[in-house]
Amino acid sequence: MQLVVLFAAITVFLLITGLLYPEGVKRDQLSRRLERIKNSNISPEIFDEELKKPLSERLLTPLKNSFLNNLRRLVPGSQRNRNSKSWARTMQSLHGADLDLSYEEFSLIKIGTAILLCLAGVFIAQALRLPLASTLLIAFIGLTLGMWLPMLIVTSKEKRRNAKILHDMPEIMDLLVVSVEAGLGLDAAITRLYERNRSPLIVELMKTVRDAQMGLPRRESLKAMGERCNVPELRAFAAALIQAEQLGVSIKKVLFSQADQLRMSYRQRCEARAAKAPIKMMLPMVIFIFPVIFIILLGPSIPQIMSIFQ
Question: Which residue has the higher pLDDT, 8 or 152?
Fold first, then answer.
């Protein structure tokens, strides 16, 4: 009996030692590392830089990355769909809306929104004590709406941002022309405008300048800017700068011609909107104005007409 108890005690001791050995090794390594840091001549302020970061960056960002890495395999759009049209369209919309999200993160947002709306629909149906068929229908509608709503929001934001870019292009181009005429280079002119104005167009131009400063060829950076924004005029401007760089044409002449074309196209768009105004005014006039006019004109004669049929 004593041998059995001794054998069991030794077995438990070995199991506990085997389980705690890796943790002990980590703690010993950490202790030695802290001891080396204390004995070194490096200023302790360097090691406090991590603690100076905000709590969201130190705590929430690692948790978010860990969560995304664990659930990345569940997302339908992974590495195998990188060349698909859906992936390209989604990434173009995210870049156009100026959202710093990957395809996997956006897919997880859609899945989470769909689940939340589905559960909310089921909860509302149960609260109203609806039958099972109605509950399933509401859950399906919530699921469909949850998958469709995030993309609708991103597309709407992309359209508003592209409209803002298109609206600001003539003014920004004139400012670039004035800056270049004053002796600044194109990159310096964009940087000076970025310091005073953070409109979407200037932000995109500044991204191009920073990409070029980081070593990316200017042709590639301009091409990337045209692909990020689904604005034909901006793509034409990027193509004109690329062609001017290849042919050695002066940037000043390119900016002059682009400014003239943008002012002309802006004037044409304003004229087209003015021409559509009478057509758009017809519907409210027919619904709200014409009935009032008919009542005023025919109102006094209605009693006489009714007296005829009595």
Answer: 152
CA distance 134 to 59: 43
Q: Which two tokens stand for residue 130?
A: 């609806």
pLDDT in tens, 179-224: 888 888 888 888 888 888 888 888 888 888 888 888 888 888 888 8
262: its two tokens: 């943008």
> Which run of H or E residues covers position 31?
helix 2-39
Structural domain contains residue 296: no
Distance CA 193, CA 205 (A): 10
* Residue 282 within any structural domain of the chain: no
> What DSSP letter does each residue of 137-161 carry, written as one string?
HHHHHHHHHHHHHHHHHHHHHHHHH
How far, CA to CA in Å, does 62 sit from each of 36, 69, 114, 140? Answer: 27, 10, 25, 34
- How far is residue 258's CA from residue 255's CA, in Å, rounded to a whole number? 5
In contact, 91 and 103? CB cutoff 8 Å: yes
- 193 is a domain residue: yes
Q: Indicate whether 117 belongs to any domain.
A: no
**Are the CB atoms for 97 and 157 separated by under 8 Å?**
yes
| Segment 14-23, tens digit of pLDDT | 666 665 666 6
Q: Which two tokens stand for residue 242?
A: 């690329």
Task: Report how many domains make up the chain.
Answer: 1
Residues recorded for the chain: 310
- The separation between CA 287 and the C-alpha centre of its own chain, rounded to angstroms, equals 39
Here the CATH number for the domain that contains residue 251 is: 1.20.81.30
Which one, of 228, 3, 252, 6, lies nearest residue 96 by Cα?
228
- In b/e form, how buried is each residue of 73-94, taking b as 16+ CB within 10 angstroms? eebebeeeeeeeeebeebbebb
Token pair listed for 173: 């181009």
Which domain covers residue 201, as residue numbers?
162-274
What phi and psi, each to the nearest 5 degrees, are found at residue 249? -80, 150
Q: Tell me the C-alpha distance between 153 and 145, whole Å.
A: 12
